[in-house]
Amino acid sequence: MEEEEHEELDEMKKRLKENEDEAAALREMHAKVEKDMGPQDPATLAAYLAGKEEVDARSVFVGNVRTLMRL
Question: pTM for the full model?
Fold first, then answer.
């Protein structure tokens, strides 16, 4: 009886470790996608766009070349 409980506990620990590893991999993939595509959630997207607008306000466009003006 005690041996079965020990085996069941070991199996649960194994599944927990697998779930934690998978969660970590998913967080890593999400961070990479967000870095590549930009933020997706509304709050982060608003902050991202506000920063982008600030950069655009300090930029000068010459043809297809963008030059940042330093203030």
Answer: 0.47
